[in-house]
Structures are given as C-alpha cells and as structure tokens.
C-alpha cells in the first residue's frame, strides 16, 4: 500500500469489500458491525485516504492495487476502468505490452537510427546489425520489466565484451539490475564500466550519474533524488537514447514507490515521446509503420508442391 | 581454331592491360574524364582475376586520373589502396612512388605543408637504396617546388640540388620534361635568393631542354621562367611582352593557362602595374571559377559511373509515374558521393586536414538538436552544411592557405566562394541540395548585415546558414591556420560570445555554448586545454556517433 498510510486489518478488509461493490449494510454484516457504526468507520476511512465518497474510495483502491502489484503477478484483466489511458494499461501490464510496436521509436538504435543511416547513405554493416540486435533486446527487456533477463546477461559470457564495446547497453543492464534488486550484480557492473576518455569507448558522466541516482532512489525514495532525475531528462534532452532511458527509469522509480498517479503520467509521457517521433518520421516523408487494413488473400488449395511454392513467393 | 585452348583469364588479363594503355593515352591527351571508366574496368578485371600486379597498376591509374579531373579526395582513396598493396608486398620503390602521387594530390589543392610531408616520406622510404632512382628524383623535385611556395628558399635549394644529382642519362632521356621543371624550380629559387649568375646558368639549360622537347608545355614553362629572370634583371618590359606571347600560347593548352596567368599577374605587380595585375588575377579567377563549376557538373554527370551504380534507364523519370503511387522514402540524393568527394577536395584548400566540412557538419547537427529541431531535420542540416565551402574549388589554389596578408583582389576572390558554392550545388530539387545551396550562399552573411552577400541581415538569413556560420567560426578558431595557432575550446567560445550580436546570431551562440559546455563536461574533456586538438576530436567523435541519436 501507499507509503505513509497504515491500514488496520479491518480497514483493509473494508476496502476490499467496497471494491467488490458490496452495500454498506452487507459490509457491516460481514465485519460484524451495526450499520450506524459502519457508517462512522467508513467516513473515517474516506478521510484517511483523502476522498469524500464511496465511489472515489473504490477508484482510489483500484489504482493503488494496480500500481503495487508487479506486472508479472498481475493477471492482465481487460477493461478494468472506463476511459483508460496509455499509462493505466502500462501500469497494469508493462511498458512494452502497452507500447507494442511503438517501442521501435524509442531508445538507442531506434527507427530514427535506421532512417538516419539511409539518409547518410551509409551501409548498415553486419557488426552494426549485431550490436543493434543486442541493444534492442536489452531495451525491450527493460520495457517489459524482465529483470531476470538482465541477471542472465550478467551471468553470461558476453558481459566482458559488452563492457568494452557497448557502455550504453551496459548502463541499461545496470539499471535493470538495480530495479530488479540484484544489488551486488549492479554494483559490480558499475565498477567495471570504464570512464570515457578521448579516443576510447567508455561511460559518460551523465550516464554514470543516472545510474548512481537510480541506486540511491531504489534504496530510499527522497524528493530531492526524484527532482534530480527529472532534471537529467531535461538537461540531456538532445541525446535521445539517454533521454528515453531516463524517462523509463523515472517511470519505474515511481512504480516502485507505489506512486500510481505519477507512474501513469510518466508512462503517458513515454508514449507521447514515441508518438512525436513517429509523427516526425511521417513529416519527413517516411512511412514508419506501413500497414494496410486488408486481410491477406487466403491461400488457395494447391495440388502440387511446385504450385504451392510459387504461391508462397507471390504472397511473401 | 577449335584445337587451340583459349584461356579466358589470359584474354581478360590482356584486355585489362590494353585498357590501361588506352587510359594512359587519354590521360596524356587531357581526356581523363573519358579514361576513368576504362581504368575502373581494368581494376574490376584485376580483382576478378586476383592478379595483384595488375590491381596495383589499375589502382595507380584510377588515382592519377581522378587527381587529374580534380577529384582529389577520390584520388587519395585510390592511392591509399595502392599504398597498402605496395606495403604488403614490401615493394619500397612502389611505396615511394605512391607517396609521391599522394603528395601531388595535395600539391594540386595548394596544401603545401601536407604535400611536403608526403614527398619527405617518399624520399625516406627509399633512403636505403643508394643508386639513383626516378621516384627519388621526382620527390625531391616536388619538394623543391613546395619549399618555393612555402617561402623556405634554403630548403628548396637543398632539395633541388639533391634532385639534380639524381638525374641520370636514363631519366634525362625518358622524362625530359621533369628535368626541365626541376631546372625551372631551381632558377626560381635562385632568383628568390638573389643569386642571378647561377640562375642564368640554369636558365640556359632550361632553354636547351625546351628546344630539345619542342612541346608547347615546355615552351610556356620556359617563357615564364625567362620572364622571371628578366624581371629580376630589371627588364620588365621584355618580360611582359614575353609573357603576353606565352599567354596566347597557353590559351590553346588549358592545363597551363592557370600558371601563366598567375605569373603574369605577379609580373605586372612587380613591374608597377597594379591595375593590370588586378585584371590578370581577375581573369585567372574567372578561369578557375568556370573550370571548377564545369568540373563539378561533369562529376555529377559521371556520378553513376564513379559510384558504380547503374544509371537510371532513359525515360525512367518524367511523368510516367501514376499519381496514386506513393512518394519514395527519403534517402540520399544520387549525386551525393560525387559531391562529398568534391567538398573534401575543396576543404583541402583551406584546412590542413581536409575535414573542415565534415567537422562543421557535425557541429551544426548538434547545434540544431540543441536549438530544438527534430532529430532527422537536425541531421539534414548537418549533412547539408558539409558543403558550405565547396565553392573554394573556384579560388585559385594557394590563396586560401596563404600566410601573408591578402590584397583586395585576393580577398574578393575568396569572397566569391559562397556564390560559386551555391552555383555548384543548385543541381536538383532534392531538399538536401536546396538546403545546401542556401547554406553555401549565406554562410558568410553577418547578423549586422556587414557580411557578404550584401543586403541580408538578422533573421532574414536562413536559419541553417546562421547555424553554419556559428559552427564554421568555432571550427576555424579551434584548428590551426598557417597564420595563427589553434585556440583552446574555452577561449574560442569566449570569442564567439564577443562577436554574438554583430557577426553571429546571439541566440544560436548561446545554444552552441550550452551544447559545447555540457558535452565537454559529459565526456570529461578539459575545455581550457590549449590547443584543443585532441579534446575537440573526441568531442566530434561523440557528436557524430548517432546510434539512434544517443
């Protein structure tokens, strides 16, 4: 439950019953109160959570519950609320599930990178492709909140080469380890990451600061740390991959602190960012997600293998 | 006939050698533009056959041809490939020859410092071989030429005498023209040193060689140096008459027209006719200007050949495309590769390394992002800014990197580069070229309206050109020029702040300073280091790394 508000067992039970849609006298009979006493208790509860009606209390409870339940545990139940925003769904499921294909516009090696390579007339080499795939896999794991993935990469053999070649991807990994609670693994990655020096790969000061801030924020959620995180998003706004990473981190920090409203708002901001980039691509004449609304032609029954093969070529 | 086995590889090899021979002929007839496809075909066959000797020859041919048509950047690429082959084979004479060729490329850009370094290298590589060598002779001869232009007369004379020792009967017979040029260089250097008698002796040799050769090129080279000698003797009238005759001859040989005009301008100046000198310089400039623009056009026409892409089928463009078909995705324009190489070539005239254009492009991209442009728009601004100085191709080489104070005419010539650039880039309606044209035309416009072109100031200057002006000024400050040392990044920012509001757009300078300070701090560069070289390079590396614009 929300930090700062402590509920007695009776009060928690009351909230649960309210959320199930029971009437006041039904709740009273379940808890063994008289209806008059029940009303007094309920109003005390409303005051405690800062609402003034039964409906508001039910809504408040539902949101609290959604934000405190980890996505893996929350059974994705559809249609929990009326007028749900992106943030609501993201908080209920995961950022990746809510963003879906829109996630290609965010992070390092995003669609922007692909288009920029084409505009510059540069070939995307095999090495580029491999680094891109690695980077995107980590990015998607971060978006779906798959912390064990980070631990698996950390335990795997490729960590040493990643530290040397892809410091930014390592920073993403460290973020995931921190959020996932693998503290000692995260500290080890932080130690390994070399500082950036002229002419060599390394981690930037801004990236290191983000990691340290995140580490502090996961230990104790203070207003000052969160303020500083917000500040970083604004300061490095021209560095898109970094900005997106910082935004996602802000989202998770709020989520861990069970601040449902802000977790939702930060998720909305992430969606808006992705949508802005999609629009930008449309503006320059790109078709970022070329889709047609017609179903594919159904495959005709073919007699021989040969004709089936040609059919496949035509449809593919 | 059917009984004689035909080795198809052998046929191919012979064809390739024949193609190279044909190239050579076209090259000597100054038809290098036509020669390039043959050289390239020979190179392709060599790669196919896996014949290293043939490949090396083809690479050298490609390099020489591109250098001749003014694509210095492309020429250097081929020479570098040849160099790595020769190095791998341990063929020092070939290595030395290749360094000499690379030096010639820089010489053609008027970049005498880099050229000197290359020729030095060429000589050093074969230091162990004591017998006279043609490549050593060439390198020393070219070194003498470079030192003459850099004003280091003693070093020039030293190299020229060394080269003279290398001349054997063989060289004299096979490469008479080079020996003539060596003697000419020697005369020029001696005149500069005030040693008239010795100069007279070598001049006689020049005249003798010229008579033996009886080619127009030799005659013109001889006439110009004779005139220089006569001016030194105080006979300027004779000299001017001689040069006027040479100029008439030169008009038939466009390759040497430039040299003759430059000599004539200098002679008129020494003889006390500044007005005529001005006219000659103007003519020289017009000649170079037209040549540069024509060449740029030719390069663009040849773009499909040069970049090995298939040219569009005739009639493929036009109004055959149905309206309903969607527009193609944005991509790089077709002329991109050709113009990138030309712009690097142009940069070589003003910057010792040739990367000025790219550096400014990177800075403009970062500035545009900081200013709030969307990422790909910022990228386009950066890419288009690379070409801002392409018009420098129209300025006679040697003037932009000249360390003495320029006179009015020369300043005017330099100022023409913005108009020339705009003319070269106005090739198609591709958005990037439209943007690049705008940048080239207005990147020297000042915020207070005192720049060129005149009659434009403040926000009326296109945004991209204003950004380019900021980045251009900054890059010029933190890199060295022959007449001043490089500054630290911090002091360069102070200088930008000083001229903000008069020369540069103050809002953009603000943005730029914020961006530079934040980025240098982020990657741990000490901005107060003097000069900024390594730090600046690290900053550019970071800025140009855009995996998804990180």
Structure commentary:
The complex is a heterodimer of chains A (316) and B (550). By secondary structure, chain A is an all-alpha fold. Chain A has 17 helices and no strands. In chain A, α11 runs parallel beside α13. The longest helix of chain A is centred in the last third of the chain and has 24 residues. The radius of gyration of chain A is 25 Å and the shape is globular. With 550 residues, chain B is mainly α. Chain B has 25 helices and no strands. In chain B, α5 runs parallel beside α7 and α10 runs antiparallel to α11. The longest helix of chain B is centred in the middle third of the chain and has 28 residues. The relative contact order of chain B is 0.06. At the A-B interface, α7, α8, α15 and α16 of A face α18, α19, α24 and α25 of B.
User: If you compute it from the alpha carbons, what radius of gyration of chain A comes out, rounded to the nearest whole angstrom?
Assistant: 25 Å
Question: How many beta strands in the DSSP annotation of chain B?
Answer: 0
The biggest beta sheet of chain A is recorded as: none
Structural class of chain B: mainly alpha
Instruction: Say what oligomer this is.
Output: heterodimer
The largest sheet of chain B, given as strand count, sense and whether it forms a barrel, is:
none
What sort of overall outline of chain A do the alpha carbons produce when their principal axes are compared? globular
Ends apart, CA distance between termini of chain B: 67 Å
Run of helices and strands of chain A: HHHHHHHHHHHHHHHHH
Strand content of chain A: under 5%
